[in-house]
From TrEMBL:
The chain crosses the membrane at residues 12-29. GO terms for molecular function: oxidoreductase activity. Keywords: FAD, Flavoprotein, Membrane, Oxidoreductase, Transmembrane, Transmembrane helix. InterPro entries: FAD-dep_OxRdtase_2_FAD-bd (IPR003953), FAD/NAD-bd_sf (IPR036188), Fum_R/Succ_DH_flav-like_C_sf (IPR037099), Fum_Rdtase/Succ_DH_flav-like_C (IPR015939), SdhA/FrdA/AprA (IPR030664), Succ_DH/fumarate_Rdtase_cat_sf (IPR027477). Pfam families: FAD_binding_2, Succ_DH_flav_C. Residues 448-562 form the Fumarate reductase/succinate dehydrogenase flavoprotein-like C-terminal domain. It comes from marine metagenome. Residues 11-393 form the FAD-dependent oxidoreductase 2 FAD-binding domain. This is FAD-dependent oxidoreductase 2 FAD binding domain-containing protein. The keyword Membrane applies.
């Protein structure tokens, strides 16, 4: 095989153009001399990714009656005390400055109160109404304004529809010094050599049957980091949002109807017409996402769901005018698939939404691999066992900015180091191998089997038998994938090829999710085991860590800023 590639050299390679990646660029450009940045976007710049899909808002302390300590406590309590407290505190402390930066520098305009102050709405799991928003289209506002800023920067090269396949090392094998990309528009390979690499691809647990993120989010950053040798943490913690729209085969089925609806007073109703959350938690519909999702799942499994296999979200009693004014985006999306959110119940289901786990990082976004940084959903630690709604976009923009500042300082002592040509050739040979095989099973059947098994066996409710079934299924899928054949012809926008690469990433990430879930023999946050339904309150708290070359390890949770007392449930 004599495949060639295009070669580019830059100072910083950023993979992902959501809140983390774009804020990193804004902060990189605060430094002199301004570095050269190559921004690789798997989709279209400003029109794709997870941050753009954010509806609800941005948690931040602005009101004098609120406090950083209260936001921090809510975050730690919501995360069931597994959070890295230094990371969580960094997010809480930096968020007020970052929201002002988004308004004053990027040009975001968030909803206001009649007196001109920023409006903050209630979200689940919070002791104070601190969620800043732009109606129910907050992510679009943030991404539109950040994209405008970045697009005008001369030092930034934007590579649209470029998929990162794997990370590259220098000739010593000790430093990450770039990545191998695929230009989806022509199917050609691009090697980008850089002095620093930031993973900001947005995670995305789309390896489940019902899922909220866009389908170009396939845990690329987490999988690439893992294969390169970075340590992953908290991978058993996968968040399922309680209210994913059930809309048959529509592309928007599974997308989130955000909890601002429940914060405003919308009800969850089972197939018998009963409100049920009071049976599971005194906070009812405003309980945290893990509790509400699991409660809804239990109702469905007990035969009290709708004929479609979901439950009802009912906001009609709030008044059609109120719902349409405050949740216009969701109302129009529901209308597109035949629902009338302002006036009638909508069928929803728990939907895979967010991975709390990811690469283990320091508070300055460094990973344990030299030259590699991570921010946003690619990184673990901020959210612990469960993420509060509104903390996701706060995390991505805060740590994206931190990464930009830290990388700028890091570059001062770094010279460009050539990538290994032998590593590149080996990667390309492996990536193209399926084109040389004889026809076999459908790549789409393997994808669907992976999603179904993870949903049934390693999803909202798990146990030893189901997790072993998931592990066996993943092993069989991996074996079949090794014999898969891809359609010959041009490689431009080759959907089968992209599915093949996505499933490879799924399998690496699913393996760590399953093994971590098998190791945690308790129920905590988003991780619920029917064979161990209680918390291990008599045991020290721990995070589960895993790297490619090591077995799973238990790392003690450090209570650096807040310790539990008798009144706290850990």
């Amino acid at each position: 095989m004599n495949e060639t590639w295009k070669y580019l050299e830059t100072d910083v390679l950023i993979l992902g153009a959501g809140g983390a990646g774009l804020c990193a660029i804004l902060h990189l450009m605060n430094h002199h001399p301004k570095p050269q940045v190559f921004l690789a976007v798997r989709g279209l710049f400003g029109k794709s990714g997870c941050t753009r899909m954010v509806q609800g808002g941005y948690n931040v302390v602005l009101d004098k009656s609120d406090s950083l300590e209260a936001h921090f406590h809510d975050t730690i309590k919501g995360g069931q005390w597994l959070n890295d407290q230094e990371l969580a505190w960094k997010m809480v402390k930096e968020a007020p400055g970052r929201i002002l930066e988004l308004e004053n520098r990027a040009g975001c305009f968030f909803d206001r109160n009649p007196d001109g102050t920023v409006n903050q709405k209630p979200f689940a799991g919070q002791s104070f109404d601190r969620t800043v928003h732009k109606g129910d289209l907050t992510g679009i506002e943030i991404i539109n304004r950040l994209s405008e800023q970045v697009a005008a920067m001369e030092n930034v090269t934007i590579g649209e529809e470029m998929r990162a396949a794997d990370l590259l090392f220098d000739r010593s094998g000790q430093k990450v010094t770039g990545a191998l990309l695929i230009d989806l528009r022509c199917g050609e390979f691009i090697v980008v050599q850089a002095r620093a690499v930031l993973l900001a691809t947005g995670g995305g647990p789309t390896m489940y049957k019902i899922t909220a993120p866009c389908q170009d989010k396939t845990c690329d950053g987490i999988a690439m980091g893992f294969r390169a040798g970075a340590t992953l943490m908290d991978m058993e913690m996968v968040q399922f949002h309680p209210t994913g729209l059930l809309a048959g085969n529509s592309m928007i089925s599974g997308t989130v109807l955000e909890e601002g609806l429940r914060g405003a007073g919308a009800y969850l109703i089972n197939g018998k017409g009963e409100r049920y959350m009071h049976r599971y938690d005194p906070r009812e519909e405003r309980a945290t996402r893990d509790v509400v999702s699991r409660s809804s799942f239990m109702e469905i499994m007990a035969g009290r769901g709708t004929p479609e296999g979901g439950i009802y979200l009912d906001a009609s009693h709030l008044g059609a005018e109120f719902v349409m004014k405050n949740f216009r985006g969701m109302s129009l999306r529901c209308k597109d698939v035949g629902y009338d959110l302002p006036n009638a119940p909508v069928i929803v289901s728990p939907t895979a939404h967010f991975i709390m786990g990811g690469l283990r990082i320091e508070p300055d976004c460094r990973t344990d691999l030299e030259g590699l940084f991570a921010a946003g959903e690619d990184a673990a630690g901020v959210h612990g066992a469960n993420r509060l709604g509104g903390n996701g976009v706060a995390e991505s923009t805060v740590f994206g900015g931190i990464a930009g500042d830290v990388i700028a300082d890091y570059l001062a002592g770094q010279h460009s180091k050539p990538v290994q040509e032998s590593q590149i050739r080996k990667m390309i040979e492996s990536i193209l191998e399926p084109f040389e095989r004889k026809p076999s099973v459908s790549i789409y059947s393997l994808r669907d089997r992976c999603k179904q098994s993870m949903w049934e066996n390693a999803g909202l409710v798990r146990n030893e038998d189901s997790l072993q079934k998931a592990a066996d299924d993943m092993n069989e899928i991996r074996e079949q994938l090794s014999t898969i054949s891809l359609t010959q012809g041009g490689r431009a926008f080759h959907l089968e090829w992209m599915e093949y690469l996505s499933i490879l990433n799924y399998l690496d990430v699913c393996d760590v999710i399953i093994r971590s879930a098998q190791t945690r023999k308790e129920s905590r946050g988003s991780h619920f085991r029917s064979d161990f339904p209680d918390k291990e309150n008599n045991q020290p708290l721990y995070n589960i860590c895993c790297s490619m070359n090591q077995k799973l390890q238990l790392s003690p949770v450090l209570m650096t800023r807040m310790k539990t007392d008798a009144s706290e449930s850990v």
